[in-house]
Amino acid sequence: MDPAPYTASMTDQRQTPRLLEVCRCCISDGVPRRSFLVALIVGTILNLINQGDALFGDGRINWAKVILTFAVPYCVATYGAVSYRLTASRRAE
User: What is the pTM for the complete model shown?
Assistant: First the structure.
């Protein structure tokens, strides 16, 4: 009997609850609010640095860069909060 199908199904069963736990952490206990505030502050500073000439001069604003400049800090802050919570819950068990 080949153990590969059994092992794959066991891995899938463990990944689904883990993914649900990650999703719950992403939207719970103020994580979105804190991540939004971090993205607002860091994104504003980075946009001023990277596109200052377009914002205060005659240059053209690159809207894709504006969106990414806010989205990346949001994702990083969310990742940091979720990874901390997952590690803390594993240690508590």
Answer: 0.76
